[in-house]
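Hi Y.,

Following your request, here is the sequence exactly as I used it, all 105 residues.
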Amino acid sequence: MLKHTREFQQVYRRGKSAHSHALVLFCLPDPQKLSVGFTASKKVGNAVMRNRAKRRMRALFRRFESELAPGSYVLVAKSETAKLPFAQLEKAFGRLVRRCGAVPA
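Below is the corresponding structure, written out as tokens. Let me know if you'd prefer a different format.
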């Protein structure tokens, strides 16, 4: 789990990013570990909406965790993250993972 600002900043600066209408995924390959961080700014909504968005992103990550290559990942919520049906979020996240190259060949 990424917890410190410097860890997030390293993934933002050195990693690849992929964007969709509901999520942004930053990934930085690292053969040593699999770690993840979640962010939701106030643009997403009030505290209830931000927490819902982060819960849904954690569920998405758990769903795809076994398929992901080792590395550091940061999932950023957009306002649609808390509103879309979960099936649509799964599709969007699957596309982001492939676009970012986070699925081993």
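The chain has one domain: 5-84.

Thanks again,
Q.
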